Amino acid sequence: MTPQAQSTSATSEPTREERRVLQELARRKREIGLLPVQQERQRAWTDLNGLRPVRPMVWINEIPWPELEAADPAALQARCRNPVLRAAETELRRELYQWDHFQADMIVDPFLVYRLVGGPDGSYADYGLKPKEIRKKGAHDVLFQPRIESLDDVQRIHQPRVWVDHEKTERRRKRLEEALEGAIPVVVRGLTTQWHTPWDYAVRWYGVERLMYDLIDRPELVAATCERVCQHTLAVLDEQERLGMLAVGNGNWRVGSGGLGCTDELPSGPLDRPATARDQWGCGNAQIFSEVSASMHEEFSLRFERPVIERFGLSYYGCCEPLHRKIPMLRSLKNLRKISMSPKANLRQAADTVGRDYVLSFKPNPAHVAGDAFDAPLVRAYLRQALKDLRGSPIEIIFKDITTIRSDPQRLHAWERIAMEVAMEVEAEG
User: Fold this and answer.
1) CATH number for the segment(s) 3-429
2) Half-sphere exposure of 172 (CA within 13 A, CB side)
């Protein structure tokens, strides 16, 4: 598309057909969102997050939508040209497709959310320090050339600029509302939850190999790097609160790398009501410390993360790193409620250590939908064994990091049916 065509599509009015399609999708979302099952699932997620679950909850996210769109363009390919309307249409199509084919315990709201226009946007440029990647021809791995060599370099990590554009937010919301013509309410939502993971950023400035050596050789430099990022994070939160950018965190959205944030332990209310971090879930991790001891994890990450994480009402910790050996360390987080259990975690050890004190957010292996063929008996046996190992602890099953389904949507459909059946077996057994 030429620059002139892009400009035209950005400002063009939707055609009658585009309005019809968008309104039809929106009306169906609203009808589904008003079904009694939505309230039932909201209560079930609330009970899980309150450590009183009836059964494991199941949710699928981080889906390879381009593959699904290529397989079923009639259902998933957006028609609208205007970027605001096209984004809304894409979101509607994906949500309805998931509801129709692999809904598990997802919740559909009877309204459409438009997110507040603001930043920082989560890019490395926000910190004033861009990673230098080293890519070898023909290799998939990426190396990072260290940019932090001294304490002076640490000072080059800048505080991200916090900004909000209420005028643009309202202008875009109005455009969306006009196109929908009352088919569904449109709600502006502030930031409900954010990742606060200093090493996800800093390792790309530091370099993985250099970081591992410097834990021993230059510990003061490693500590200073994490402390600097966390100090900036606290300042960003201050500014977001001052500008009224935060919304209540109790609701139908992902928390950390886990499940939905429905809870009766955080405030509820309109999504456009300004809130503080205390009204939200906090999230942290240090994935690069996967193989680092608990004492080093504490010394070079968690002690700096703690003031950030504990500023929130409840918190979630972890992502792809196995944390079964670090639960005693994580207990020091006063507001901790959920702990990620990656495919590499020892689930039995984790459950024995946790008991019923936290929700264990189990991440099944996404390779089960990426092989040459989908092996349903293997998936069933794997999930049954995992839930047997986790027995006695509150559990959510979060299927994510799905890089590919080999262009076969039926794999997700089949995985969802098996996971729900296995979860129901737990409920039947009591």
Assistant:
1) 3.20.20.210
2) 22
